[in-house]
TrEMBL record:
Alphabetic keyword roster: ATP-binding, Nucleotide-binding, Transport
Taxonomic lineage from the root: Bacteria, Bacillati, Actinomycetota, Actinomycetes, Propionibacteriales
Pfam families per record: ABC_tran (PF00005)
Protein name, per record: ABC transporter ATP-binding protein
SMART domains tied to this protein: AAA (SM00382)
Native organism: Nocardioides glacieisoli
Amino acid sequence: MSETVILTRGLRKEFSGRRGTHVAVDDLDLAVPAGGVHGFLGPNGSGKTTTIRMLLGLAAPTSGSMALFGEPVPQRLPEVMDRVGAVVESPKFAPNFTGRQNLRLLAASVGRSTSDVDEALEKVGLGQRSDDRYRAYSLGMKQRLAIAATLLKKPRLLILDEPTNGLDPAGIREIRDLVKDLGASGVTVLLSSHILAEVQQVCDSVTIIGHGRLLASGRVQELVAATGAYRIVVERPEDATRALEEAGLTAAADGDALVVQTDRPGSEISRVLGEAGVWLDELTPLRADLESVFLDLTEGDRMGAMPSGEDYR
Ligand SMILES: Nc1ncnc2c1ncn2[C@@H]1O[C@H](COP(=O)(O)OP(=O)(O)OP(=O)(O)O)[C@@H](O)[C@H]1O
């Protein structure tokens, strides 16, 4: 069985304010397996940052337990922190120094070499821009430098909290490609986001939360399992519709194709049509995408979390 890199059990965080107690994280069981990219998804205010802050010892849980690499945290954080890199808040870099100079300073303070710096800059693809001043960097370049800084210690777990926030589409694509490469290189990446399209393209597995509670967790392929519908293309749609209806199946026209809603296997459709002498050109199972799964699961949470009229993305 693969190692569980992040594990929480019954994790809870309450904030007390003038208006009483607010539960930001509620009985959360999180399990992130080693290797690949794990999406940590939820609408704004659902408790992602609070969970990450607790894992990193930046906030104290109200109750529950947490472990990183099997070691209880925060108790044993000092022992595991050299295996963990995190970009949670925007890191402070010197604006008049170049990206490379900033990283060299950092490397010197943590006992890393200039070749470690070069390697990290190479990995995040800053290339020649490494020698430009930090203040001239775009938001995406700043984000990549922040990731390069965490790579200096060659972490086995990388925690990125909404790394594409505020980036333009090109910047989002760059970070997405980088995260994908890092996951493929053997680093376990926890990627928090509320942008579904982005996560679906990079993540191997996901945890979806709403109002601090676990809503779903698993491999992306499993979460977006077949919806019980097939799209078929046949030469004689009228004959196909009739044959399917006689077999108790309904088919609705969808452009040149037909959509058949059924929980029966696709082979059944092909048998019914074959027996009626209608041959299939195409039969495709229709799948929900992660976005529809997410929207279904978090519908109530989004309504609670967002002021009316605001786009939660
Ligand atoms: N220090 C704090 N004091 C009081 N309430 C807080 C504090 N930090 C977070 N919260 C509240 O806890 C809830 C969860 O916030 P959190 O930032 O963890 O959500 P998130 O899922 O990371 O959201 P986003 O996607 O907007 O970053 C929110 O209702 C937030 O207002």
